[in-house]
Amino acid sequence: MAGLYIHVPFCRKKCPYCDFYSVGYREELAEEYAKAVIRNIHYYNEEYDTVYFGGGTPILMARHILQILAECEIKSGAEITVECNPLEMDEETLKILHECGVNRLSVGVQSANDCELKALGRSHTFEQARLAILMADSIGFSDISADLMIAVPNQTAETLKRSVKSLAELPITHVSAYLLKIEPNTVFGKNPPENLPSEDETAELYLSAVSLLENAGFKQYEISNFAKAKFQSRHNLKYWRREEYLGIGAAAHSFYKGRRFAVKRDIREFISSEHQLEIVTDENPNELEERIMLGLRLCEGIPETLWRKVENFLPLIPKNYYKIENGRLSLTPNGFLVSNEIIATLLSHLEGKNAARNE
Ligand code: SF4
Q1: In angstroms, how far is CA 226 from the centroid of its own chain?
Q2: Domains and CATH numbers, the chain
Q3: What is the predicted pLDDT for the residue at 349?
Q4: Coil/strand/helix, residue 253
Q5: pLDDT band, residue 313 (cuts 50/70/90)
Q6: Which of 57, 122, 124 has most ligand 1 atoms within 8 Å of its beta carbon, as the pocket-test mutant?
Q7: Which end of the chain has fewer CB atoms < 10 Å from its terminal CB, N or C?
Q8: Which residue in 212, 107, 222 sits closest to 155, CA to CA?
C-alpha cells in the first residue's frame, strides 16, 4: 500500500541554512492550498497506510490538516506524522492534531544549546522545545521524534553530548540527526557562518552522535535516523525500501505506479491547477540500482541477491566501511560517512558490467 506525503510550504520565517521550498504563511493562502490538496486527494483516489505532512511548517495548517485527513482514505492503524516547529506547539493546536488522528510528531529541536540554535537562526530556545514536547506527551502523543543537527557552528563534542543527554531525558521515541549542509541557494550558502567544524571534526561529531544515541537507547536504523524499539518511521522506511509513495503539493516528490515524478516549486501553480502537474524525473527507474543505492542507507543493508551483483568490487572498499552479516551487506557508521562515494563506486561498476554485456 502507498504512503502519502503532503508538502506544506509555509514557514513564519526562513532559516538561513534551509533550502526546502517554503513561502511566508498567510491564512487565505493556506486555505486555498488546502483546497488544492483535497482536490488532488480525490483525483488520485488511493488508500494509504502512512501519511506524512512535511514542509515547511505543517503545524501552521493544523485546522486544515483536520479537513485534509477527513477526505483521505486511511487504513486503520496508519502512521500519521506532522512536522512541528516548537513555537507553534500550543495546547489548542496539539489537541486539534491529536483529535484528528495524528499519532506521530516530528519536532525541529536541532540542539539543546541556545548559542547553537541562535547560530542556526532558529527562533526558539531549547527550553521552549522541551516544554512543547512535554505538552505533546501530556496530551497523549506517544510517538515523538526530535531533529538534532550535527556540525553546527561552534559545536563541540561536549555540546553535542549535552544535546543528546537533554533529548534522551525527554519523552521521545526517535531522533533524526542530520549533518548541517551548506546549500548554495541559502543565506548560509552566500555567507557561510564562522566556526564551522572541519571535515575531520564533522566526521568525529557524527560518529560520536551515533554512539551517544545508541547508548541512550536510540538504535540507528538509517544514516541519519535512530529509534527506540518499534518506533522506526514507517513512512520514511518506504523511501529506502523502494515502496510506493505519492507526494501532493508544490515541490512534492513521488515514486508512484513505477515512475518518479515531482511537482514544481510554485505554490501559485499548484493552487490554480485542477490537478497537480507531474514532472516526470524518471519514467522507468532502474530497480537494481535503486535497491542498492537506497538499501545501503539502511542499517539492515541489502540481501545477498543484490550484493552478489557488485561483489567483485567490494575488495576495493576499506574493510571498516562495510560488513556482511546473516547474508546481508550493510555499511558501518564509518561507511555511512562516505556512503555517496561507496554507492557511486558500486553502481559505476554495475554500469561497466552492463555496458560490457551489451557490447
Ligand atoms: S528549517 Fe524548517 S522552519 Fe526553517 S525554513 Fe526550513 S522548513 Fe521552515
Answers
A1: 12
A2: 2-239 (3.20.20.70), 288-358 (no CATH)
A3: 74
A4: strand
A5: confident
A6: 57
A7: C
A8: 212
